[in-house]
Write a structure and sequence with these properties.
This protein has a seven-stranded antiparallel beta sheet with strand order 3-4-5-6-2-1-7. The longest helix has 23 residues. The protein is built from four helices and seven strands. By secondary structure, the protein is an alpha+beta fold. Helix 2 packs across helix 3. The protein has a single domain, classed as TBP-like.
Length: 162
């Protein structure tokens, strides 16, 4: 009985995932990520005094090979380099605009809005002015037109967002 129940639960969860699982299109999920990054970057630049930022994004396969997500990253260059006040200033600037602070690693500020996570890593000794930015949307399995769109976009080069 338990095995049969487990198989039914597995079949239902797998079919929901295979059908897309919800009614949000791939383009809408991509826009959510791009909009969050577009809002966070100017706040981050101002908070750390960045003078130059370059960020790229692309549809990529998820870890484990199940589903896809829009993700990317890049750099911010700040002339003052590794300023100890920069991380708290960055976190404050982003949380004041509605991002939730999900930082778990020293030397980073990680924020989220909805299903989008953005991480800012403070400069290191190797390049004391270079901040690293990474971001990702939620992994999701797409079907139909969304699957075609994601496959087509996944095959393209990284595109500049900033």
């Amino acid at each position: 009985m338990r095995i049969a129940l487990a198989l039914v639960v597995l079949a239902v969860s797998t079919s929901a995932c295979g059908l897309g699982g919800d009614d949000v299109s791939a383009k809408t999920r991509e826009k959510e990520v791009v909009d969050a990054v577009d809002e966070a970057l100017p706040l981050a630049q101002e908070a750390v005094g960045a003078t130059e930022t370059e960020v790229v994004g692309k549809w990529m396969g998820c870890p484990g090979g199940i589903g896809h997500r829009f993700e990317g990253g890049g750099t911010m260059t700040a002339p003052q380099g590794d300023d100890p006040a920069a991380l708290p200033s960055l976190a404050s600037a982003l949380t004041a605009k509605g991002f939730s602070d999900e930082t778990q690693v020293d030397g980073h500020v990680t924020v989220a809005r909805g299903d989008v996570r953005i991480d800012f890593r403070a400069p290191g000794a190797r390049d004391p002015q270079q901040w690293t930015v990474t971001f990702e949307g939620r992994c999701h399995t797409y079907s139909g037109d969304d699957e075609t769109y994601v496959a087509r976009e996944h095959a393209k080069e990284w595109r500049t967002l900033s």
